[in-house]
Amino acid sequence: MPEGSKNIRTRTDPPFEDIVGVILAGGRSTRYGRNKAFETLGGKSLIGRVVETMTSLFRETILMTNTPSEYEHLGLAMHQDLIKGLGPIGGIYTALKIIQKDAGFFVACDMPFLNRALISHMVSIMEDFDVVVPRMGWKIEALHALYRKRCVAQIEKNINDGIYQVIRVFEHVTVRYVEEEEIRQFDPQFQSFLNINRPQDLRRLENLCLSS
Question: What residues contact 86, with CB distance under 8 A and at least 6 apart?
């Protein structure tokens, strides 16, 4: 290795500069009963854990939320959905419209066990794909995925057609699926994708946090 080469950054060396980290916090937590992003796990809020991981990976991290006053203390740039009421696809659409970089890596605000190595791997294999997303059998983790800005046109078309399910976009763009065995190399228990929808989900994660 040439002298000084350790200081040369590549796309596989975080913090990544050509991809924006995007945290989606637009949900109303209707099933949970209150804003689940601020529930605590191991002494930190769920969103605090997400912010910690994402800001360590990406030079620029933004928060998509329609209630920015709730999240001001996080110190992140915040943006509201251009079209409200669409769910996650609205946040993805807006973020891809406003970011200046080629791509965004999107995660939900209630995923406390994000895996830095897995995310770094997903960035390293993006090549010329429009989307890089984990897939475990039939389940596709569309809210733990990398999307390029050029997905905007298809997302906009789907929105105009009343199709709001994010994975329906994948039918019309190039997708690199990260399959189960590939994921297991970095996250054997698939903890990256754990989130909460109900209070009992938080208790389950608390037990996991204590045992880890």
Answer: 93, 159, 164
